[in-house]
Design goal:
The complex is a heterodimer of chains A (111) and B (115). Chain A contains no helices and eleven strands. Chain A has 111 residues and is an all-beta fold. In chain A, the strands form two sheets. In chain A, strands 2, 4, 5, 9, 10 and 11 form a six-stranded mixed beta sheet that branches. Chain B is mainly beta and 115 residues long. Helix content of chain B is 0%, strand content 55%. In chain B, strand 5 and strand 6 (53-57) form a beta hairpin. The chains are: A mainly beta (111), B mainly beta (115).
Amino acid sequence: QKEVEQDPGPLSVPEGAIVSLNCTYSNSAFQYFMWYRQYSRKGPELLMYTYSSGNKEDGRFTAQVDKSSKYISLFIRDSQPSDSATYLCVLRGANAGKSTFGDGTTLTVKP
Amino acid sequence: DTAVSQTPKYLVTQMGNDKSIKCEQNLGHDTMYWYKQDSKKFLKIMFSYNNKELIINETVPNRFSPKSPDKAHLNLHINSLELGDSAVYFCASSQLAGGLYNEQFFGPGTRLTVL
């Protein structure tokens, strides 16, 4: 079983839709939760990060963590064509040097 | 200024050849990584160096050999290239010491095609 399972996608939505991207994990040692965004033919870049259970909002993006269920989500409100990219959840333990990447979900927002 | 740079950007070569990809970061980070991203866009870590010391070595054929001459450089040499090595290879760097989230900064990728 993989340590991190990400909803595979691909996901295609109309402009303005609310998007939910999800990951589950099995290792309770994960303490830090991040979302990276990767545009086509570019390297991934950090989009959001959070530590505690609950919600963290940044503009149209909300990162949600439920440590009791080992479930994390990224919500995108009022999605735009410029949000079309692959989104990767990334988890890290408190002392581990390695970050564990999900397999990514490719999102297409159609105008 | 480019934070993490890789050369070459594209590499097309024949099976059996040996090739190298170079990576440099000017962020002053202490840790560098090599990732392989296949055609399905799965990103898999291959190696990581912290202060020139190998700290992550995933299950990778020993035809792949990383070399870190200093903290700012991490090169990847691949011997006897195979068709299955075709992928995009990303270099990344981060400041591991004191960095809780270990934000990684990625290079633009090297698209390797083995014919």
